[in-house]
Design brief:
By secondary structure, this protein is an alpha+beta fold. About 30% of the residues lie in helices and about 45% in strands. It is built from three helices and six strands, in the order ααββαββββ.
């Protein structure tokens, strides 16, 4: 359950908008993909996380599971109107005890208004 604990710790930092603390969980060569963005490398990824965290009001993890080097989290994000509530999921891969791949799943339509 080590990777699950790391994933929850990372998302707890993000939910508190403490990106400098969240950075310690991220691999230098992290790969990131989401419906509206892609990035490779820790600096670009953390820039995207900083932007994301400046925008949401609240992030709450609902469910979590782990299998070998992968962790899946379901969480809710509350944004200011007109976006509102966005149910989301993330598949995290780990390498050397750090997050090496982040794949986000959410409905991007509210962001394209």
């Amino acid at each position: 359950m080590k990777n699950l604990s790391l994933a929850v710790a990372y998302y707890t930092c993000v939910s508190k908008k403490n990106i400098d603390e969240a950075a310690k969980y991220v691999h230098e060569d992290v790969e990131f993909s989401a419906p509206l963005a892609k990035a490779k490398g820790k600096t670009l990824f953390l820039d995207a996380v900083r932007n994301f965290s400046s925008f949401f009001k609240n992030l709450t993890i609902r469910e979590q599971c782990e299998s070998q080097d992968k962790v899946m989290l379901a969480y809710d994000v509350e944004f200011p109107d007109p976006i509102g509530h966005v149910p989301s999921a993330v598949l995290l891969s780990f390498h050397d005890g750090l997050i090496s791949r982040v794949e986000l799943f959410y409905d991007a339509r509210p962001f394209n208004r």
